[in-house]
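DM between two lab members

TW: hey, do you still have the Aspartate-semialdehyde dehydrogenase entry open?
JB: yeah, one sec
JB: this one, 362 aa:
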Amino acid sequence: MSEKLKVGVLGATGMVGQRFVTLLENHPWFELVTVAASAHSAGKTYEEAVGDRWKMETPMPEFVKNMVVKDVSDVENVAKDVDFVFSAVNMSKDEIRAIEEEYAKTETPVVSNNSAHRWTPDVPMVIPEINPQHYEVIKDQRKRLGTTRGFIAVKPNCSIQAYTPCLAAWMEFEPREVVVSTYQAISGAGKTFKDWPEMIGNIIPFISGEEEKSEQEPLKVFGHIEDGKIVKLDNGLRITSQCIRVPVLNGHTATVFVNFAKKPTKEQLIEKLVNFSGEPQRLGLPHAPKQFIQYRTEPDRPQVKLDVDYEGGMGITIGRLREDSIFDWKFVGLAHNTLRGAAGGALESAEMLKAIGYITKK
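TW: and the structure you got?
JB:
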């Protein structure tokens, strides 16, 4: 146990924080030693602080129940016992940007699930299978922050996970126009049906900020580093989206239409999907799916109930790839929004950062 890196979770009592807690139980590389939340929760045991708000399908792990929650704003006290932290705090974006930089300046790496730093030019926003080379910008971020060890890395929005990996697999065919509609689970809003009974049998055709994220974040993921900053892709790829909240607990589904500059066959597209892998697979990271993308041939797949937990919720499921009368091709994708799309994606990012030497023992 002493060889494991010691980790803290900021915002540990919220839904994503709870997911971090469950994922860190018995993790082979990381040991959860600190949980932090608002001043209201500080001083209570984790079990007391969460109370009846435990939202995971599995019971609260025993090892965390009696941990005393620290005040997330007491940065030095939280940072002193950990090698790095996961951030899932519920604050305004300005407050999140400030507190994550404050932690980084204590020489504590921050792996964030939050959106606040996604467009900070020297903060890498990474899907480890797609753009781990963006971690190289950390050296420039450290110069700006005046740190030798501390930095911030983020993961992209959950809404892009069901289709951005496909575009990555198909880059050689030069995707040009993408029209996507995402059908997003209520856990993406930190809710269960108990919290949000009005979602039962309902659809809400608006999720604040999601469409802009869905259209722009893939372009940063596909971008490149220039003069110490990440510059978004500017090769003519355009994405337009609609994001809709649907009565599903976990799993974001996307319907996608794509035009390509080069015209691939269906067989070529499927071959690129099922053989697509990256550094997490090569390195054998603990939470890396063995097969990142699966393709289902059944006409009624992917389905949330059947496919959302593919590869422990860390894989992507694609189906219904077919020619379109206006676009070249269309398909349906599915990703688990709180695993691949949130805490699991951040955990895989931390595993990658450890494997390549950016996160080490203090």
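TW: got it. The mean pLDDT is 97. The domain at 5-157+343-355 is CATH 3.40.50.720 (Rossmann fold).
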